[in-house]
Amino acid sequence: MGCEIRYHENGNWFELVFQGEVSVKTIRDAMDTMRAQTPLGERRDTLVVFKTHLDIGFLDIFSVIELLKDFHIPTQTRVAVVREKRYGLGERQSNLRFFSNVLFNRGWQMEVFDERQAALNWLGVAEKAHQLDSVAV
């Protein structure tokens, strides 16, 4: 699928790590998996990490927003996107900013970060994530 999904019960949040090709289908597959782990319509803040070159076009943004609506993702949900610098975004950087603005206009909150720790701080789950990372080692 190209996406590893972790549900962190202690903080009630998801972490999605995309590798390989990222498309609307890849995102839909990830959301299907998340839905199986979460009651429909419940808020789960989400950390999304792209360990790949992000190649989502302008029109794909509206498809992803439709997915959010189809999956009844509450508008209070916050999405922190981490884009690893080594993969860059090239011309897609402006698409990601546009996506963030469109989400905001529809009630969702999305911020883009260069580092996972900053994203975890913004979501307010940094301490809980640190506890999990310590246990996993």
Description:
- The protein is an alpha/beta fold and 137 residues long.
- The chain has one domain: 2-Layer Sandwich (Transcription Regulator spoIIAA), CATH 3.30.750.
- It is 43% helix and 21% strand.
- It has a five-stranded mixed beta sheet, sandwiched between helices.
- Mean pLDDT is 77; it is low at 132-137.
Strand-helix topology:
Blueprint: E1 3-8, E2 13-18, H1 24-37, E3 45-50, H2 58-70, E4 78-83, H3 93-105, E5 109-113, H4 116-123, H5 126-136
Parallel strand pairs: 2-3, 3-4, 4-5
Antiparallel strand pairs: 1-2
Lateral arrangement of strands in the main beta sheet: 1-2-3-4-5
Instruction: Give the overall shape, derived from the CA principal axes.
Output: globular
* CATH topology (level 3) name: Transcription Regulator spoIIAA
Proportion of beta-strand residues:
15-25%
Q: Counting H and I runs of at least 4 residues, what is the number of helices?
A: 5
Tell me the count of domains.
1
Radius of gyration: 14 Å
What's the CATH class label?
Answer: Alpha Beta
Largest sheet: 5 strands, mixed
State the helicity in percent bands: 40-55%
CATH architecture: 2-Layer Sandwich
* Number of DSSP-assigned strands: 5
Indicate the low-confidence ranges by residue numbers. 132-137
The run of helices and strands is EEHEHEHEHH
Q: For the terminal residues, how far apart are their CA atoms?
A: 25 Å
- Structural class, judged by helices and strands? alpha/beta
Mean pLDDT: 77
Summarize the structure.
The chain has 137 residues and is an alpha/beta fold. The chain is 43% helix and 21% strand. It has a single domain (3-136), classed as Transcription Regulator spoIIAA, CATH 3.30.750.
